[in-house]
Amino acid sequence: MATKKKTTVQKELKKVVRKKVKKVKQDPALMLLLIVVVLALAIVYYIFFYQPPATQTYGSEQNEEGYYYYTLVENNTYYYDANNDIGDALKTTLHTIINTGFSPTTYDDARQILGEADAVLDDPSKVLAIYNSATVSSTWDGTTWTREHVWPNSRLGIPRVTGSQRNQASDLHNLRAIIQSVNASRSDRIFTDNSGENQINDDGGYYPGDEHRGDVARILFYMAVMYDFLELADEGFEDGETYTMDRITMGKLSVLLEWHKLDPVDAFEVKRNEVIFNAQGNRNPFIDKPEYVHLIWENKTIQDLTKVETTTFLPNQSFGFLQMVL
Ligand SMILES: [Ca+2]
């Protein structure tokens, strides 16, 4: 009985609504008023409730804390075997990938190759010297610029490299064009934090300069994976004899991890990686896939680094709402 009554009431209500809708549809003035009201509501919502996406303070591939977003790579590409790996497993896979096809050049060869690899992007006649950003003739003359070992030769577990040798001290990824006097100041100091220009720090460490700190970090990350006997740490730098396997530690790791975020990968590093890939047959993974750093040294998971697309109320959604109403 109650259900039947309810049904009758519902029928009556529907009838009234239909009549009203019909009236509105037949009356252009009412129709216009309805459109204006709905539009006004949409505008009020847009002005007061619409939140534009937060402004990025880092490069476009990083989140607001500076972590690089994770992406998988396509089948048959250089890092394919590293897809979904994290931690030590990722480090081991990358070690295999970057040793495959590796054909080291001699330390002498680096004089010509660095002239191209470290060339200023819009002026190949000049190289960009590391740390002080000097730009000088890219043609090797033995005095204008020389070869910097970012991971110092004295901490590579082998004697001082000679011109004809091919080993960890002739690896092009670790070599950069440098001005002689800057090379002397940097010496084989570990890297410690500061800000501004390149300088020797009060703690005896070296600050590479704001524009060079990320480059330095990514080079050292490459070396620690390529030559897996080398160590990145926060201490233990003075243990053992230089130029032997007793002193193979570089850092400071915690500082390098921050520099990697603060000075993101740029076009100069991308070009340099390409030139070196053509010369010695391997790549620096941390320039191509900067997010791998967080997975190996910062205990991050792939989920931590996956970009979450947030839904926002956009103008075209308001129009969709209008269409639905009308
Ligand atoms: Ca940089």
Automatic annotation (TrEMBL):
Tagged with keyword Hydrolase: yes
Keyword annotations of the record: Endonuclease, Hydrolase, Membrane, Nuclease, Transmembrane, Transmembrane helix
SUPFAM superfamilies: His-Me finger endonucleases
Transmembrane segments: 29-48
Keyword flag Transmembrane helix: yes
Taxonomy, superkingdom: Bacteria
GO molecular function terms attached to this record: endonuclease activity
Database matches in InterPro entries: Endonuclease-I, His-Me_finger_sf
Protein's name in the database: Endonuclease
Species assigned in the record: Paracholeplasma manati
